[in-house]
Input
Amino acid sequence: MATGARHPTLAMGDTPRLGRRFYARYTPTVARELLGCLLVRVEGKKRLSGIIVETEAYRGSGDPASHAYSGKTRRNEVMFGEPGHAYVYFTYGFHHCLNLTTEREGIPGAVLIRAVEPVEGVETMIARRGLEDAARAADGPGKLTQALGIDRRLNGEDLISSKRLFVEAGSGPVPVGTSARVGIKLGVDRRWRYYVKGSRFVSRGRPAVAHSQNP
DNA sequence: GTTCCGATTTTCT
DNA sequence: GAAAATCGGAACA
Output
């Protein structure tokens, strides 16, 4: 049980908030180590938070599933900037997705937050989703942004200095599982989805191949 | 329990 | 004009 994610920024136990250096690394590593950390959203004086239980890594030109695959555009420019910022985009006409940027400046990378386990402000979160069960309040990328009140106004937010959105280190290592990423057509061979094994709060995702027989 | 399909907007070709 | 890092409801077993 001694093996698992380590959090370099916690080495001295000084600050609970993850620092710039945590994000400025190889994206899949950041995605894995974000599991167990606490995503915090502050609205006015109200604090909403949840433990990150599911993530996916997206990189640049070598990753066909990434928004940054075809180069820099106005939408994805945050992925190319300084690590430790929020990349929020609107998709499918309904949903926002929250990513945290990674890699050093100039190198595109981001971690998609797919699910959290509600911790603070649970009643607010389930009320927004019209549910009673906290386990389903934030078990998908579009669901958690709705529960936490995250939209494109937070695109580009600096997670190191922001008072509205940031991440705090977890209390310790968690059991990690991996799988192919969800909802993409290309790049499925890379197992860059990470989740907390055994957690009830992860999204189910879709089995990439149910009955296909590839020779 | 699982699988299929439509809704609706932004973004890019 | 087409596709998209999704969700929720309907249909079926």
